[in-house]
Amino acid sequence: MCGAVCLQGGLIGPFRFEGTVTGINYLTMLADSIFPAIRALYGNDDFYFQLDGAPPHYHRDVRAYLDQNLSGQWIGRRGPIEFPARSPDLTPLDFFLWGTVKDGVYKRKPRNLDILWNEIQAVCREISLDVLIRCTESVVTRTQNCIDAADIRCEENKLKITELIKSNRRISIKDLSSETGLSVRLCHQIVTKDLDMIRTSSKFVPRILTEEQKGYDPETKRQSSQWIERGEPKPKKARFTKSKVKTLLVTFFDINGLGHHEFIPFGRAINQEVYLGIMRSLREAVRLKRSERWQNNDWILHVDNARPHTSPCCFAVLGQAFNHTDPSSTLFSRLSPQ
């Protein structure tokens, strides 16, 4: 673990901690290293000492030491100047130093902790004073940008975004940003926090499509999402589902191809009556499509032993109208083309 202090007059540190940083060893570092180095740079001039709110900085003894030595001139949790929580964009160490040091050290690929510490010190020494000055001065600009961002979330922009959403509930945050000229992040904050809106998909409900609607390509769940106020019911959308109707097809064929086929009406099972009607249609189809075989009586109907085939009534019709052999004595499922 290492730490540092970034000032306009230069960089103090880095400092190496063995193990976990606690309030006690942080206080020791303040008293023995940091404050003497700051006084050496600034003398008795006034300055402000900024902390980022880490737990060691919040230690009771640390705050007492800062109140005693920098009364009213330190920034941090429960300090004379409160530091906003989770604000790394306002801390020079966070928005500049640690990223720069990490990039420089990783290029050198240190192999152990001692080499790593030496490389960290080397990279810190390479940072020029001019860069540190620009870095600390940018804190003022960054703070002002935060203040301006709060002002941008004004009633005028809220009203503009509200009108855009009312005119098009499916508008995206990126489109809102391009229409208003505000950042994507700011638009998202206004919509979700200030206007308290959420984006939700339409609720699917079953509906029978008309003939005109059957050619319509339905939207996906993501395409149907739109902005609604929290607590408002979801919009409804017809569900597009394929038919689950199963159709039975009865076919008869020989070496010359398909001789006869029939579709069984929906909801009907193949029972004795249905099969008898199929046999009558088949007999007529053979007479018309296979007339030569019909005249020479040179054809045989091959049926298996399914229940409709083996009923007494069907046996009687098959024996009279067709050249039929009783298959009920043995199962020949592997010898049947079907």
From TrEMBL:
Secretion signal span: none
Pfam family of the protein (one): HTH_24
Entry-linked InterPro entries: RNaseH_sf, Transposase_1
Domain of life: Eukaryota
PANTHER family linked to this entry: HTH PSQ-TYPE DOMAIN-CONTAINING PROTEIN, TRANSPOSABLE ELEMENT TC3 TRANSPOSASE-LIKE PROTEIN
Entry protein name: Transposase
Species assigned in the record: Cordylochernes scorpioides
Taxonomy of the source species: Eukaryota, Metazoa, Ecdysozoa, Arthropoda, Chelicerata
